[in-house]
Design a protein that fits this description.
By secondary structure, the protein is α/β, with parallel strands linked by helices. The protein has 4 helices and 4 strands; from the N terminus they run αβαβββαα. The chain has a single domain, classed as 3-Layer(aba) Sandwich (Rossmann fold), CATH 3.40.50. α1 runs parallel beside α2. The longest helix has 24 residues. The two termini are 29 Å apart. The C terminus is likely disordered.
Length: 129
Amino acid sequence: MADITGSIHERYVAPRRIKILASLLAPLLPQSARVVDVGCGDGAVSQAILRLRPDLRIEGIEVLPRGTPEIRVSAYDGRYIPFSDRSFDAVLFVDVVTAVRHGSTRAPSEAAISEEALPLSATMISALM
């Protein structure tokens, strides 16, 4: 049963969801922005955004890289963002659950890497749909 459910999700649900997320997020990003996608997974959402907005430059960071990413992805330990401060114009957090250990010296922060952030949760996106 799990195999059938996974197949249905991968074939029908995920592509539609990626297309909808990209269509909602793409117009919100600044013109010609350099964007970091925190917790980008395989980069499918960012790649879909790039198809709509070729003016953007999107890089991803991921704690658990998987598959062959569709965008450039840097390893991320979940604690220290591997870029210097203010390296990006915008930040994407799409379906990211972040757990910061007690005593961490630097929590993952959109402010640390971008002048402005666009924090959207799955709930907010669902409301837009």
